[in-house]
Amino acid sequence: MPIFLTSHGAAGTVTGSKHLIEVRGNGGIFRVLLDCGMFQGEAVRDVRHDPNRSFGFDPREIDVLVMSHAHIDHSGLVPRLVAEGFNGPIWSTPATRDLCTIMLLDSAHIQEYDHAFDAKRAHQRGHEAEPEGPLYTKDDVPPAMELFRTVDYDMPTEIGPGITLTYTDAGHILGSAAVHLDIENDGRTLRFTFTGDVGRYVDRLLPEPVPFRQADVIVCESTYGDRDHAPVKEAEDDLLRHVTDVCVKGRGKLLIPAFSIGKTQELLYTLNSLSNEGRLPRIPVFVDSPLAIGATEIARAYSTLFRDDVRAELEHDPDLFSFPGVEFVRSPDRSKQLNGVTEPCIIIAASGMMDAGRIRHHLRNSLHDPANAVLVVGFCAPGTLGDKLLQGATEVSLFGDAVPVKARILRMDFYSAHADRGELVRYLKCQDPAAVRRTFLVHGVDHSLEGLRDRLTENGFKKIVIPKRGERFEV
């Protein structure tokens, strides 16, 4: 019986991860959806209709959802999927479930806030038609969370007739996993692997990505498929240099837009290490993101997932994310007070791509001052505010206001949670390329997808496919 794969997101773009597997058998069609992520940036703005409002399939027909990790571009449409009729189990690792609990509530809050803001602006401009409602609300999140079922790494679990799921640690963020499905079909087993997002081979909080069993079909991410990151040994010194240049010598603010899950904890871990060594200047550090604070608390609870040497540090430093001078900002009122701070400081706030969250308020109040700087520490999808700043925009729009960009825009790739080109090839070295019947490259823009395709071809992989959104393949 045939098995089909269709990428309904993260095909030719980085966001909106959704990959549908259809297994046809005597009992009908069993449908497995891998991830249910939200489109962001250019993927939303450059189409006539918001792709987040149309899945490309009927949610009521999906039998099971398998999550790779909690980032919004992989999980952000789960509440909408459930609201539109999906009622099957949602499989994830325990840490992914816990992170989704706070991530999806935060996302719902953003949906409601943005809709209210757009409606108010439309009314002020005399538009009769109100903008479409939010993608989902906070009330849609609890029913979705009730469907979650968890399984640890390396624990084969039957999730459907003749379909066994096994997770391996992808090393990307807390709880992130590569998805391995063994699908029994016509007396044979199709070994299918979806990498999710692959982490890095560096000495940081999480272990390296784990090798996996031989696959027949691989769906691989390609975010940094055409480039390599800076050497690891430079990272701590580079961060300290930026802090010193901006805050000590320039007497300005250093704004660090960071994803609440992963990068914020990595940054706090580095700053904590610098503080323990007596190298961190005595300046205030504000973590202005309730979501990041919640994610940091979850990270503390899952310290068993850290690298062995990081867990060993806990014996003499029981809190790796806090140090003298750091303040975790929860309330909106305290966040607004930071706009009046004139002394040098570091502000870490979400979102990493700068398209939502409290970082936008700080940018509006800080971009005009050449004494300040914005340190970009992760990937910014095309069309996002972060991408515009990296491309050298001299003016940006924030909350309807034109804001001149006079602050310096700095970049550090080390804190990216995504494997670079060399690391992706290293991750796939556990495979016999001659035994991989087909490799699909997703979760990348054109030059990244093509760059990784060329590198994998050099390493012996055949039949490498770059799917278009909605294109269906028999595997």
Explain what you see.
There is one protein chain. With 475 residues, this protein is of the alpha/beta class. It folds into two domains: 3-227 and 417-474, Metallo-beta-lactamase, Chain A, CATH 3.60.15.10; 232-411, Rossmann fold, CATH 3.40.50.10890. The protein is built from 14 helices and 22 strands. A seven-stranded mixed beta sheet has the order 6-5-4-3-2-1-22. A seven-stranded mixed beta sheet has the order 7-8-9-10-11-20-21, covered by helices on one side. Strands 14-13-15-12-16-19 form a six-stranded parallel beta sheet, sandwiched between helices. The mean pLDDT is 92.
List its salient traits.
475 residues, alpha/beta, Metallo-beta-lactamase, Chain A, Rossmann fold, 2 domains, seven-stranded mixed β-sheet, 14 helices, 29% helix, 23% strand
Through-space gap between termini? 11 Å
Q: Uncertain regions: pLDDT < 50 for 5+ in a row?
A: none
For the record, the CATH architecture of the largest domain stands as: 4-Layer Sandwich
Arithmetic mean pLDDT? 92
Largest sheet: 7 strands, mixed
- What count of structural domains? 2
Query: How would you describe the shape?
Result: globular
DSSP strand content = 15-25%
Work out the helicity level.
25-40%
Please give a quick description of this structure.
The protein contains 14 helices and 22 strands.
Write the layout of secondary structure elements.
Layout: E1 3-9, E2 18-25, E3 28-34, H1 42-45, E4 64-66, H2 72-75, H3 78-83, E5 90-92, H4 94-124, H5 141-145, E6 148-150, E7 157-160, E8 163-169, E9 177-185, E10 188-194, E11 217-221, H6 235-249, E12 253-257, H7 263-276, E13 285-288, H8 290-301, H9 308-313, E14 326-329, H10 332-337, E15 345-349, H11 359-366, E16 373-376, H12 385-390, E17 395-398, E18 401-404, E19 408-411, H13 421-427, E20 438-442, H14 446-458, E21 464-465, E22 472-474
Parallel strand pairs: 3-4, 4-5, 5-6, 10-11, 11-20, 12-15, 12-16, 13-14, 13-15, 16-19, 20-21
Antiparallel strand pairs: 1-2, 1-22, 2-3, 7-8, 8-9, 9-10, 17-18
